[in-house]
């Protein structure tokens, strides 16, 4: 910094500056003196007479002048490690994204006669100040600078390429790049993103570029049908993750997400976003070693300015193949209860006391039972229902997650209790049930509409009528909209709405339900024919230990029950329905699926409870192979 430049900054003459710094300012205005001295101190001006006495000996001191030091902890650790290994100390200065502050720091580094500087310029104009370092033979290594400078940079372009390639490995083609505006890192990641698309022959269009600052960012993800997102910043990933959750879209079942991870995000353990760690420490170490070699005039040839490292994902938890590539899933819309089961000698009767022999508390409700039944048989299952704001709700979530049922469609009603079923079981396995609907009664058509994305890629929707009938109708309609077939269990119905008949593909009442809905006919065959004539293509009336009866346009026949001793018949129909849907999705014929479903129901009724009695896929198939191997593929 020259005396002429100081005078220009202060708006005074060179002679005025000279008089003030040489203590010959008796006739100068005090305000002018204060202003000039302030600038002299800020810009570390040294009078020429003192400059001549500055030693040219090495100080073994390095300067680090950063654009901002707010997010570079690991890089500084790498710089310090390299410096200390070579016997150097480090002077750290932060420009705070200000060119004025940057210039003041440059003059401070010159005054301290540092041997070399690692310099992250504030902008493309910062290089005009390099002459201050050159005049004192101070070596400079630029980092994260514009393309016009020989600057060291982390290869964010390669990292963007690898992030994109990972999504392609998971069969995503509808992907977007999530960026921060005015971010150099984002621009480099975006270049890698586009190059990867080009190399894999995926057309690029501008809709694939998203900015986290855009209020419409999430709606663009949904409207353009993106199934995978590449993010240049971990903070942006967290914001997107949270906002999509609020819209009931979830990672990774609805959206796969990959990101770079900053050192300041290292302590975040949830959510598990599949990320590549930015190698700041290694980069800082690399640059500092090169600066020291430059300071010590060691000829190592032209350095490699692009720092390349291994790109390793810390996890793949936020990755899945797009839903349209997965096997068809099952959506279950129905009741979720806490089942309290009492074992008794005989069922309660008016005027008589019934002694309870034992009791158990388990997860129940036709919706919950059917979803767990299908999940145990290897299906992807989404359950839609309402539970209360009580301790039972935590108990229910724990079991559903343990059984691998997707619970994004299960909502806590803050003003209601979880539904409860009180079940009495006699010694012969027959029972009676009383139900407190609780939160189940609050599941509305609007709730179904809000969660309709869960119907995407569904093969079947299992519906039971222990929830409001208008909600059942809305679920049946939306399921059809997404191409799913509806299996309806008409529990506690006195009549069937015409709209439900029109949207039912498979109708499965038990003997009592069929009689209640068709009282004009007394035989199973005529009742099934009645429902068939109402427009339902497939009617299956379950008959307990007698099996079931099937009616279609081509078939009218009985199927025997599997040979099991009945202990508790409570969930037999739920086991039957979940198995029927599961094997139909696997491509089995209707008749083979019914036969397999009778075995699943048999396993269930041979044990106490419902959820604990539901059979898994391997056990079911192993049992069938012994008795009826031709049933299986």
TrEMBL record:
Keywords: ATP-binding, Carbohydrate metabolism, Cytoplasm, Kinase, Magnesium, Metal-binding, Nucleotide-binding, Potassium, Transferase. Its main location: cytoplasm. Signal peptide: none annotated. It comes from the Bacteria. Pathway: Carbohydrate metabolism; D-ribose degradation; D-ribose 5-phosphate from beta-D-ribopyranose: step 2/2. It is an enzyme of class 2 (transferase). The keyword Kinase applies. GO terms for molecular function: kinase activity. It is found in: Cytoplasm. Its cofactor is Mg(2+). Activated by a monovalent cation that binds near, but not in, the active site. The most likely occupant of the site in vivo is potassium. Ion binding induces a conformational change that may alter substrate affinity. Substrate binds at residues 337-339, 365-369, 466, 574. K(+) binds at residues 568, 570, 604, 607, 609. HAMAP family: Ribokinase. Belongs to the carbohydrate kinase PfkB family. Ribokinase subfamily. Homodimer. Catalyzes the phosphorylation of ribose at O-5 in a reaction requiring ATP and magnesium. The resulting D-ribose-5-phosphate can then be used either for sythesis of nucleotides, histidine, and tryptophan, or as a component of the pentose phosphate pathway. This is Ribokinase. It comes from Blautia hominis.
